[in-house]
Amino acid sequence: MDHEIVASGTPVCEAGVGAQAGRPVVFYVQPLIARYRIEVIESLNRLFSVKVFACSEGVEANGFSRERPECDEFIETRIAGLPSRRIRMQSRVLSRIVLERPDAVLIFADVRYLSLWLALLAGRVMRVPVLIHGQGLYRHKSAGVMRTVCYRLAVALAVRYVCYTEASRRSLGDIGCPLAKLVVANNSLTVSCGVEPADKTGAENGILFIGRLREGSEIEPLIDVVGQLHGEGHDITLHVIGDGEQGEHLKRKYGERGDVIWYGAVFDDNAIATISRRCRVGCYPGSAGLSVVHMFALSLPPIVHDRLPLHMGPEPGYVEDGRTGFFFGRDGGAHALAATLRRIWAMPPEAMRATAAAAHAVYCQLNSPTLGHQLAEIVEAALRE
After folding, report:
1. DSSP per residue over 123-158, as a string?
2. What is the pLDDT of residues 277-325, one digit of tens each?
3. Is the pLDDT of residue 17 over 90?
4. Which residues pair with 51 in a beta bridge?
5. Which of 78, 63, 343, 107 has the alpha carbon at shortest distance from 209?
6. How far is it, in rounded angstroms, from Cα 186 to Cα 162?
7. How far apart are CA 6 and CA 30, in angstroms?
8. Burial of 87 from C-beta contacts in 10 A (0-12 / 13-18 / 19+)
């Protein structure tokens, strides 16, 4: 789950509001509702009576805002760790499936959740189509026996496994999952206020970091590299949008730095776009995910490391080095990141504008149609079978 910046201000839904008689009832199950999932729910709402299951308790501490989307009903769930610690359980999902027998269930595909397996089994027994949506096994060179068994069984019980990317689909096909059950809806997000390539000069002095300040973000090496290049005489400033468990520590440690500007958790797309206009590129030096798509929307070529299986999600695979963004060698650490930034800062403005235009074109492609429209069509097709 991986988008790092989340917007607020979505209307609170009440049970029964917006429901229309005769529309199929779809349960949409997520661990939490991040901003980029709002468009998915809106798209599902156009075709179905949607009931959303999610946990909103404590999400602000992790850099998210609390969301209550417009839907037929929002069911607040608890997520508990079972004694094994690796296995989790989301409350109320199974009981509501059994009691209400929805027309379909669309659920996130984390095989560590016992609630996922119970939903799949209930769906099979009650003839309720269950669609699961996830990353597949792109992170694993070798899936191993247990993962292979788990994923093959999950795909067998589901009517569809909706893959985040083509790489996700290949990873499941490679372990023997039937390709007919694997569909791709490229994981993306929509931004209400982006930045057009024509608005970029190619000579901006900023780098944008947008995301949760968490373990794995690797923002400290980025701060150090910016300081190093600043000391070498480069006109360069790091703009940091986001908050999270490491936020206070980082601001205490680096708060006096003149080449780093801290904005905290900004949830307004227009404000984010305004900040981004001061930047030439975006950079997420650690395990990135949907933040790269947000950078595309802002006409900021993303800088990410080159080890796709080590990212939080498969979305950095959308980056083409030198055309829509830039890679640095993860094994080379801060030295490799510094070399990539020096190369970028040496590029002529017209070359940077061309890269910004290519990056923005990826965002447009990923949202034609949007993720929500794709998922709604996949659910509708499953109901017609």
Report:
1. HHHHT--EEEEE-TTTT-SS-HHHHHHHHHHHHHHS
2. 999 999 999 999 999 999 999 999 999 999 999 999 999 999 999 999 9
3. no
4. 27, 73
5. 63
6. 9
7. 15
8. middle
**94-122: burial string, b at 16+ Cβ within 10 Å, e else:** bebbeeeebbbbbbbbebebbbbbbbbeb
Confidence tier at 326 by pLDDT (50, 70, 90): very high
Residue 1 has a pLDDT of 37
Checking if the pLDDT of 7 tops 50, the result is no
CATH ID of 197-366, from 3.30.450.20, 3.40.50.2000, 3.40.50.280, 3.90.1150.10: 3.40.50.2000
Give the start-to-end residue ranges of the domains of the chain: 25-190+369-384, 197-366
φ, ψ (nearest 5 deg) of residue 232 = -80, -5
Pair of tokens at residue 108: 């996130």
What would the mean pLDDT of 210-230 be, rounded to a whole number? 95
Q: Which amino acid type is present at position 313?
A: G
Same fold across 25-190+369-384 and 197-366: yes
| Contact by Cβ (8 Å): 301, 359 | yes
Per-residue model confidence as pLDDT tens digits over 240-260: 999 988 999 999 999 999 999
Distances (CA, A) of 295 to 29, 66, 281, 366: 27, 23, 8, 13
CA dist., res. 35 & res. 40, Å (int) = 10
Domain 25-190+369-384 class, CATH top level: alpha beta
pLDDT band for position 21 (cuts 50, 70, 90): low
Specify whether the CB–CB gap between 134 and 110 falls below 8 A.
yes
Q: Maximum Cα–Cα distance for the chain, whole Å?
A: 67
Radius of gyration of the chain (CA): 21
